[in-house]
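Note to self: keep these together.
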Amino acid sequence: MISSKEYVIKTMVSLLANPKKKFSQNFLIDYQTVIKTVDALNGKSKTIIEIGPGLGALSEEIVNRNYLLYAYEIDQTMVNHLESFFKNKNNFHVIQGDFLKQDLKYDELISVVSNIPYSLTTPIIEKVILLPLQIESFVFMVQKEAGLRIMAKKGSKDYSPLSIFLSYLGKMEVVNKVSRDKFLPSPNVDSIVLKLTFNKNRDYQKEKKLYQLLNNSFRMRRKTLYNNLHNIENIKEILFRCNIKENARPEELELNDYLKILELI
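Structure:
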């Protein structure tokens, strides 16, 4: 079983490799975490995209459940290991390269899963949620504090364009909390597994415009919404029509407020 301390140590020795800090390699060694994470992929999609499989702890369980898995891995050493381990599995495909630079094209309904490198949390999440693809769900593990920021509500200091946008895209939920001792090497922080179940009949162009509006609105948190959006034509009138005060700050608005602004731009 890949998700065991013994397997990780034995395999890394055989590969003559050490975990690479530049790739944030902390290998999962807890099978219960694997089970709970893969259980969250419990929808209609039978094609799974995995980002950063590493040694393949999640991959093994996904493949054994007969999903069709496409795994994107940047580390050639890990790619070589995965190709060898899954050589007799027709439902496993590994793609070597930086996921952030990949042009993904899938016609079928897919789900995405990832133990996201802490240093790439926002770029990878943004890449996935802005893909114009039929995505049923996105199950991802991140640093616990980052996960709580992602789930932040209006009025919180952690309320952000990303947290608002995710609430627009679908249903966010906590799958599991994972302590730091479930990894080898052990990171300095605990983790959390989150799941985004996307709404159906998505409007990708509207989503892109909304996320751009949100990022512009929060460009400088200490400034008012009006100051952050002053480049938009007739923004003063738009805010008035939306019953939003000129001196309102971006963290004081709800998702529906931003949707109203978007409709009038």
